[in-house]
Amino acid sequence: MSSSKRFFGIVILLALIAAPFVVWRQWNAIYDWSRLRDYSPPADVVSLADQDTFNAYTKHLFYVNHPQLLSTVTSFRQYCPENENTIVLGCYHPDQDGIYIYNVQDPSLAGVAQVTAAHEVLHSIYARLSTKDRAALDSELQDYYQNDLHDQRVLAEVALYQQTEPNSVMDEMSCTFGTEIASLPSPLEAYYSRYFNNRQAIVAFEQNYEGEFTSRTNQINAYDAQLAALKQQISNEESTLSAQLNQINSDRARLDSQRNSGDIGGYNAGVDSFNSEVDSYNSGLNQLQANISDYNNLVTTRNSIAGELETLDQAIDTRLTTQSAQ
């Protein structure tokens, strides 16, 4: 009799423990239903979900947040006002209350919206993890960050989050690693596979548009190195030509003096050597002029690529202070 009572007591205790979880699940279901009841995702939103290979659960959360693609900085910043002096391409409002994505217009940067959408929906997913699942994920993220993350660009992103969002670093790492790093440890790959049918498709978007920046940056750096070497060469040639010209002027004065004094033999003996000096100088001058022309052409090409890079930077620049200054 007493054992039955103890068992009944345990059942009651378990029910009491489980009750908050059940209520939480029911609340989420009710909230989601209310958000989706009269909602029909726009075609561009559906396209993002499909391109990012969201599975059914991820699409569900994405649509619960009524995602919007906004094509002007002003309209975008109405919904994402945080960090007004920082370039932000998307934001997630807590409690599944909205996802907003800046719709970059430059065709060279196709893929930015896709990566941003995946990043923001991962915030939504992270927010609904159980305490246990979140702790397990955070442990895997921290282990990877401390021991295996070597991508300097991603490390810089994490460092920025540590400064600007110190209370959300693990959340941000879960979004960044999942959308920007091609190869992750098995536990993390297993986590992301719960939400994406093909995570590599998202990473490919990121690599493609990031490549537009890095390729131009690498070209600029290569041209800068060439320009520095050519500038030094031109400087050396100018010094050599200056010394040659001084010698030519000195020898011309000597020859003129010999001729004027009647030393025709000495004058004739020095003419061939003098002419060789002049020929060498003229040859060096031609080479200098060619190198200067090459330098100027390289500057034009380099600046053209720098202009392209600046255009790309402007295409993703959502800083309100920058926009108002333009």
Any overview of this molecule?
- The protein has 326 residues and is mainly alpha-helical.
- The protein folds into two domains: 36-209; 213-316, Helix Hairpins (Orthogonal Bundle).
- The chain has helices at residues 2-36, 43-51, 56-64, 73-79, 112-127, 131-147, 152-164, 169-180, 186-193, 199-261, 264-315, 320-325, and strands at residues 68-70, 90-93, 98-102.
- The chain has a three-stranded mixed beta sheet with strand order 1-3-2.
- α6 (131-147) packs across α8 (169-180).
- The longest helix is centred in the C-terminal third of the chain and has 63 residues, at 199-261.
- The radius of gyration is 34 Å and the shape is elongated.
What gross morphology would you assign? elongated
The amount of beta strand, in percent, is: under 5%
Main sheet summary: 3 strands, mixed
Based on DSSP secondary structure assignment, what is the total number of beta strands? 3
Q: Share of helix among residues? A: over 70%
* N- to C-terminal distance: 83 Å
Topology:
Blueprint: H1 2-36, H2 43-51, H3 56-64, E1 68-70, H4 73-79, E2 90-93, E3 98-102, H5 112-127, H6 131-147, H7 152-164, H8 169-180, H9 186-193, H10 199-261, H11 264-315, H12 320-325
Parallel strand pairs: 1-3
Antiparallel strand pairs: 2-3
